[in-house]
Specification:
Elements: E1 26-27, H1 29-39, H2 44-52, H3 83-92, H4 99-104, H5 107-110, H6 115-120, E2 128-131, E3 138-139, H7 142-153, E4 160-164, H8 170-182, E5 188-190, H9 197-207, H10 216-219, E6 224-228, H11 232-235, H12 237-248, E7 252-256, H13 262-265, E8 266-268, H14 273-277, E9 281-282, E10 286-288, H15 295-308, H16 314-320, E11 321-322, H17 324-333, H18 336-343, H19 347-359, E12 363-367, H20 369-372, H21 377-390, E13 400-403, H22 410-415, H23 426-436, H24 448-456, E14 462-466, H25 470-473, H26 477-484, E15 489-494, H27 499-503, E16 509-514, E17 525-528, E18 533-537, H28 552-564, H29 577-587, H30 597-600, E19 604-605, E20 623-624, E21 649-657, E22 662-663, E23 666-667, E24 682-685, H31 687-692, E25 700-704, E26 709-717, E27 724-728, E28 752-758
Parallel strand pairs: 1-8, 4-5, 4-14, 6-7, 6-12, 7-10, 11-20, 12-13, 14-15, 15-16, 21-27, 24-26
Antiparallel strand pairs: 2-3, 2-16, 8-9, 17-18, 18-19, 21-28, 22-23, 25-26, 25-28
Helix pairs in contact: 7-28, 8-28, 9-21, 15-17, 15-18, 15-19, 15-21, 24-26
The structure holds ligand MGD (2 copies), iron/sulfur cluster (SF4) and molybdenum atom.
Iron/sulfur cluster is lined by residues 57, 59-60, 62-64, 81-82, 84-85, 236-238.
Amino acid sequence: MDAQKPLNNQPPSPIEDTTDNAPNMGGGLPVIQYWAEHTLSPEGPKLWQTLLHKSACLSCAWGTGGQKGGFTNEVGETLQRCMKSVEAISAEIQPAVPLSVFEQRPLSALQQLTSLEADRLGRLSVPLIHRAGSDRYERIGWDEIYQIAESAFRQPPERVASYSSGRSSNEAAFLLQLLIRTLGSNNLADCSDLCHSPSTVGLKQMFGSGTSMVSLENLKKADCVVLIGSNAPANHPRLMNELIQLRERGGKVIVVNPVVEVGLVKFASPAFPIKSLLTGSEIASLYLQLAPGSDVALFVGIQKALLEKGLVREDYLQAHTENWQNVLEQAKNTNWDTIISTCGVSQTEIEAAAQIIGTSKGVVFAWAMGITQHDNGVDNVYSIANTALLTGNAGKEGAGTMPIRGHSNVQGFGSMGVVVTDRLKQEIQEALEKLLGRSLSRVPGYDTRALIEAADAGQIDTLICVGGNLYAANPDSTQAKRALGKINTIIYLATKPNLGHFHGLAQQTTIIIPVFNRFENPHKTTTESGNNFVRLNDEGKTHLTNADLISEVEFLTKLAQRLLGDYPVNWRKLQDTQYIRQLIAKTIPGYEKIGTIDQTQAEFTIDGRIFTQPKFATPSGKAKMFVTPLPQLQLPSAADFGIPESIPSLVLTLMTGRSYSQHNTVVYKPGDRYRGMPHRNCILMHADDVERAGFHEHQQVTVQGDAGKLENVEIILGSVRPGSALMFYPEVNVIFKARIDKRSGTPAFKRVPVVVYAG
Ligand SMILES: Nc1nc2c(c(=O)[nH]1)N[C@H]1C(S)=C(S)[C@@H](COP(=O)(O)OP(=O)(O)OC[C@H]3O[C@@H](n4cnc5c(=O)[nH]c(N)nc54)[C@H](O)[C@@H]3O)O[C@H]1N2
Ligand SMILES: Nc1nc2c(c(=O)[nH]1)N[C@H]1C(S)=C(S)[C@@H](COP(=O)(O)OP(=O)(O)OC[C@H]3O[C@@H](n4cnc5c(=O)[nH]c(N)nc54)[C@H](O)[C@@H]3O)O[C@H]1N2
Ligand code: SF4
Ligand SMILES: [Mo]
């Protein structure tokens, strides 16, 4: 089916969309214009220097860059840096925030800043402290920092915690978990808890390995990609090159998304100036615009269609999987009406998808937040992987399951063991116990949501945040602020100021420690891409003059040494990061080659992750399949939100996510031109819904969830599925609490019930 033709009962594709000035394809000349503006500007030389620096791109986990040069991917193809990389670097090469900003502005003034304004203050360049009773941050010296930090961490282990975000290195991540675990705590919350945790949990149970089983090399051999719940044109732009090339070699792309993202219909890639840049390349061969949260129903439908068409590979299932009979039973017994009414996609379209999947030679199933950020996130992952297995598309070249990871080193953090107890690999646990000469604590530990709840209950004394923005990344910003405010001491390690530093203040002491970023660290570091490829990042230097920065590795080792002396390692020696790499080689399965990377400079694919044979890392070697109950997607009524019938209103399923120009909680530009949303306080709605409620485009409405409301929100018409809407985080996080997926701890950011009303 043609993606550009309107689908059954569905809104027209954005090609016909009349939204003011919205482009009719992703990428294209605006990207080149952005490149040109930035690389030719006064910051240009520094920007080029950084782009050419041998280190992995800061932005997403696609993992461009590294030893083969700043523009190279892991199979050696050049011209692979996208403008998101430039965006991220531009933010890091800003001048320092003048000290006067902190000395002269009370926190009440800094709290008025938007995310964009906070980021534009510049780079953090000196350590700062906020003491209870004071109305502002002030400069602090290192001796006092270490004294405060040391006494803050000398608390009962269950009352100390860390949070981390995947921009830092493997080396910092390894040290962080070693420090926290040696102290006897398992409270290692990480941004992945809010992100791909359902993928890790689900895939680990099914295949014995929680990451992508597809290498970039293998993706290039696929003839079909099913791209589910991902806005790759904005968030993983280099993946688009792979999709363009796949279409060119005759392959098919099936997109599954409640929003028709313009760049998934057509994308103009600067990497192919002649064939793609001006006219754009068609991406989706089939666009399935399902209801948010209904992916399990869609995939059970695809399984049913496969069964009915005789396209299920029973020989494969028999030989290489467990529990397949029950999965097939479920597909057989779930009737079409239930499937269609749940996901809202027609049987014809589901059958068309099944036909493509069942007859392609190699299918890669790739997904992002549209799949994981649901209260049945793990089921979503199972249902996709079940579909891969039913068609024999796991454990062979050019096929498999591929979670598209977020932050540039978020996967490295997981590999290094920055996870709560029940998600820690057995091998790492054993290696750490050997190193420590004792057992690790078996207390479960707090993941990110549990950490906020524990803090809110007054159960946390000390928190160290290695990057990130714990305050703004969480649902229910009011609760997040209150919870952080009950912690005695919070230590933030950060490169740039963000909302969390101003709103996430501890009860007694908040310290901000300015750190080097990846291309400035005085030592080599490593990172791991979402494709399981380990990058080596060269040492560098900062452009900041008179700055008092520290590396994350130096701070963590010094703190650890004060707290633990020489136990269980000589922490001071670890300031030379090659010793950390040697320790990693001995502790982390698949990472053996990192032990010699300083000598060989050889970047490598982690062993045991890429499956090109149907022999998986489970005890039996077989993939384990799981039955996936269909979700119940009822919405509350307006009355449940306390809105009387007399007020025109509409209850919708709100998806919350990123605009085109933001990196997570950090906004680079207010609008999203590809979705025609001119500023942050917009709601993207379908014309039918707007008409049904008696609203009109550009009207200002109130959007209310179960934790608060946003007023004067402008209605923008767009190609969202009727009954659903889209808004941007972090601003929207103030209005909802979010249900949590019990198995992974991940909040349902993509299915937030809200009521929209006039006034
Ligand atoms: N430029 C840039 N790059 C980034 C980031 C960034 O903020 N900016 N963030 C990084 C991080 S940490 C992450 S996790 C990734 C995020 O990358 P994505 O996952 O692509 O980002 P989101 O904006 O969360 O949007 C996901 C998509 O899911 C769709 N969706 C929503 N609900 C559903 C659903 O129920 N089912 C399906 N099938 N689809 C749904 C939305 O319409 C949207 O297109 O990007 C990484 N890269
Ligand atoms: N409503 C809603 N909420 C969401 C999501 C959603 O889709 N919808 N997505 C969730 C997802 S997928 C994620 S991953 C989280 C993101 O949550 P986080 O990872 O906690 O947030 P970021 O905005 O990525 O953190 C940005 C900050 O990291 C710091 N930083 C940058 N580089 C470095 C570095 O090299 N070292 C150190 N120490 N600090 C550095 C800077 O100070 C910067 O301000 O948000 C989650 N929240
Ligand atoms: S795709 Fe991701 S890793 Fe590659 S250059 Fe763009 S932002 Fe960086
Ligand atoms: Mo993420």
